[in-house]
Design brief:
Heat Shock Protein 90; five-stranded antiparallel sheet; 2 domains; elongated; alpha+beta; five-stranded mixed sheet; Beta-Lactamase
């Protein structure tokens, strides 16, 4: 076995250098609860020099930790080798929030890392507040549009069915907005969008929804929500959802090699009345086919098969559509 040269730092020296360089407070305890490591960040956080800490008993230095989840986690790590990680208010600084990680050490004892996450928690709270405010404003805007539309669409030239469809599309936009708010406007999962659009039509009772985890960017999630809304609305009026025994299967898979993964989605209706192709594609059909094709850069196909409508979509994974 080769020995380090006199000029080469030892393993202990290298480890100490690493611990001194990290910004998280780190300390280690032997099997008798005595401090054996106490880095510079720990000195700064606790306001005490390591010389005054090393060799002392944890519960002597920190008696306020007795009888708390901190003590229980430390003893579980020491006794059973069970690691723990949790967030808590700092008992030393009540205005701060910290994340504690407690892990057993090989040969006995435990190591603890303390990270001050106050700024991160504050930023998260601010982001949630902004997202809720955005949600409130969007809903107010949609309500205003709905009120204007209700007045404008009273014209005898506008059919009751056209008014109903327009209002339903606004409601679909609002439901898509709710899904995005739940994810703080970072986008939404395809499963959550599908479930939200299926909910008014019976959800689990009439729908089979299944597929791997897919994340949609905000604009893509809205386009998908509107497309699925149109499919569900048509199914409720003319297709599978217009009869008690009708069902809809909405499934998606990922296909292709890692560098060319593609999303394949299929909407399939069964158990409904015989289906015939409409004479002329309406706005809803164009929204389904062209809107999704444009937003997802997808190949789409809407087939009015005798046994029920089948809609298929194949789109590449991209910034708008991601796996996981």
């Amino acid at each position: 076995m080769s020995m380090p040269s006199p000029s080469e730092p030892s393993y202990e020296a290298r480890l100490e250098a690493v611990l001194e360089s990290v910004s998280d407070a780190f300390y280690a305890l032997d099997s008798d609860w005595r401090f054996v490591v106490f880095n510079r960040a720990a000195e700064e956080y606790f306001g005490v020099a390591r010389e005054a800490i090393l060799g002392r008993d944890l519960w002597e230095v920190f008696p306020q930790g007795l009888g708390t989840p901190f003590e229980a986690s430390c003893r579980a790590a020491m006794r059973d080798g069970t690691p723990a990680s949790f967030e808590t208010s700092s008992r030393l600084r009540p205005d701060r929030v910290v994340e504690l990680r407690i892990v057993p050490m090989r040969g006995g004892g435990v190591a603890l890392t303390l990270t001050d996450i106050t700024e991160r928690k504050t930023a998260d709270a601010r982001q949630r507040l902004l997202a809720n405010e955005l949600n409130h404003r969007v809903k107010n805007s949609l309500a205003t549009v709905q009120a204007i539309a209700a007045q404008s669409l009273r014209s005898p030239d506008v059919s009751p069915e056209a008014r109903e469809r327009f209002m339903a599309r606004l409601i679909a936009l609002a439901r898509a907005n709710d899904v995005l708010v739940a994810e703080t406007w970072t986008g939404a999962s395809l499963a959550s969008v599908a479930a939200e659009m299926a909910n008014p039509h019976g959800d689990d009772e009439r729908f089979t929804i299944a597929g791997p985890e897919i994340h949609l960017a905000p604009q893509t999630a809205t386009a998908m929500a509107l497309g699925l809304h149109e499919l569900a609305t048509n199914a409720a009026k003319y297709g599978a959802l217009s009869t008690p025994d009708g069902r809809v299967s909405l499934t998606w898979t990922l296909e292709g090699a890692a560098e060319a993964r593609r999303l394949k989605l299929i909407w399939r209706e069964t158990g409904g009345p015989p289906v015939g192709s409409p004479g002329q594609a309406g706005f809803g059909s164009r929204l389904i086919e062209r809107g999704l094709a444009s937003e997802l850069q997808a190949n789409v196909r809407l087939v009015y098969a005798p046994g029920g409508v089948v809609f298929s979509l194949t789109a590449p994974l991209s910034e708008s559509v991601t796996e996981g």
